Automatic annotation (TrEMBL):
It holds the Pfam family ABC2_membrane_5. This is ABC-2 transporter permease. Keywords: Membrane, Transmembrane, Transmembrane helix. InterPro entries: ABC2_memb-like. The chain crosses the membrane at residues 20-47, 80-103, 115-137, 144-165, 185-208. Signal peptide: none annotated. It comes from the Bacteria.
Length: 217
């Protein structure tokens, strides 16, 4: 599995996708922006291009002739996706710290980049992973429908969260007002988000394993 993961890093994708988190993360410096989009760019840009590259390079055929199991192939690919997702979130969080320092008196219409917000981002990616990974491994070749469905799910979650904050005064205050200073609550939301992210991705991995075993190569 380690060698497969190294293959992903070295020849699986363009080096541009290791730079992209620093480019999209810089959008966190825009005051009062819709910061969910910073993480969604991973779903919009990285995933379709990455899997389009796999398809054009016949990566499935190439990997299948290596002395590896199907389980290891899935594990390496899912691990690589998770590493890229974590890179996007961590870089965006660092930029978010600068945002809070640069604009301490900002009045937020959209979510403030608090710990709780990043917890919601983990949940958004959890939904994306559950849909995309499980759908993609029905064929392990066709990625368009899986990417569309997963992006739709992630967008609906982000849109629903923003709508709820506008409709509910408690949620608004918690994520955009004085409640953002309640570090304990926000850390709990962040922890819950990480747990949901890990759980959903683990479930997606197991669904993918079962489906990939049935795929003829």
């Amino acid at each position: 599995m380690y060698n497969l993961l190294m293959k992903e890093f070295k020849i699986g994708v363009s080096p541009f996708f290791y730079v992209l988190p620093f480019l999209t993360g810089a959008l966190m410096l825009i005051p009062g922006w819709l910061y969910f989009l910073v993480i969604l760019y991973f779903c919009f840009i990285t995933i379709p291009n990455m899997f389009g590259g796999y398809k054009s390079q016949n990566d499935l055929i190439f990997t299948s002739i290596m002395p590896v199991t199907k389980r290891d192939m899935v594990k390496a690919r899912v691990s690589f996706i998770v590493i890229l997702e974590l890179l996007h979130i961590v870089v965006a969080m660092i930029y978010g710290v600068f945002t809070l320092r640069l604009y301490p008196d900002m009045v937020y219409l959209f979510f403030k980049p608090s710990f709780g917000f990043w917890g919601l981002c983990f949940i958004m990616l959890a939904i994306f992973n559950l849909i995309f990974i499980s759908m993609y491994y029905k064929t392990s070749y066709k990625y368009g429908a899986a990417a569309f469905a997963a992006n739709t799910g992630a967008i609906l979650f982000a849109g629903s969260a923003e709508w709820l904050a506008l409709q509910n005064s408690y949620v608004f205050d918690l994520f955009k007002g004085a409640g953002t200073e309640n570090t304990g609550v926000h850390l709990l939301i962040l922890l819950a988000g990480i747990v949901i992210f890990a759980l959903f991705t683990f479930i997606a991995y197991h669904i993918a394993n079962k489906r990939f075993e049935k795929v003829e190569m």
